[in-house]
From TrEMBL:
HAMAP family on file: Ribosomal_uL11 (MF_00736)
Source organism per UniProt: Candidatus Chazhemtobacterium aquaticus
Signal peptide stretch: none
One term of GO molecular function: large ribosomal subunit rRNA binding
Location of the Large ribosomal subunit protein uL11 C-terminal domain: 74-140
Top-rank lineage group of the source organism: Bacteria
Identification of the protein by name: Large ribosomal subunit protein uL11
Gene Ontology cellular component annotations, sorted alphabetically: cytosolic large ribosomal subunit
């Protein structure tokens, strides 16, 4: 059997277990002729245990209009918000502080996200996470 020819690869950030055919999902998949409800049902089934989180999906669409997808971990910003129980980051990051991450929390998030980052070094992953935290107005305790 010959390998299927890849038409395109899409990255979608969707609510776990609660994806719908409404934008952004429907239009993104519909323009490539993918059966939208098939994807929505499979994605919701695969992510039903993670409700309330944003779970990115990398969708590979083939020439014959079939698809496969892989779910990734929640974005770093969402993991930080979850850890600190924040609704959102600081509005003005120069003046306001949204919260403070301990070194232990920073390392925990870095280790959790390591497989999705372009490094295998926990120290480097911690720097990536602390950069995201800074951009949200979250301080890192020493």
């Amino acid at each position: 059997m010959a390998a299927k020819k890849v038409k395109t690869i899409l990255k979608l950030n969707l609510q776990a277990g609660a994806a719908t055919p409404a934008p952004p999902t429907g239009p993104a998949l519909g323009q490539h002729g993918v059966p939208i409800m098939d994807f929505v049902n499979q994605y919701n089934e695969a992510t039903k245990d993670l409700r309330g989180q944003v779970v990115p999906a990398v969708v590979t669409i083939y020439e014959d209009r079939t698809f496969t997808f892989v779910t990734k971990l929640a974005p770093v910003a969402d993991l930080i918000k979850q850890t600190l129980k924040l609704k959102k980051g600081a509005a003005n990051v120069k003046k306001d502080t949204a919260g403070t991450l301990s070194q232990a929390q920073l390392k925990e998030i870095a280790e959790k996200k390591l497989q999705d980052l372009n490094t295998t070094d926990v120290e480097a992953a911690m720097k990536i996470v602390s950069g995201t935290a800074r951009s949200m107005g979250v301080k890192i305790s020493k």
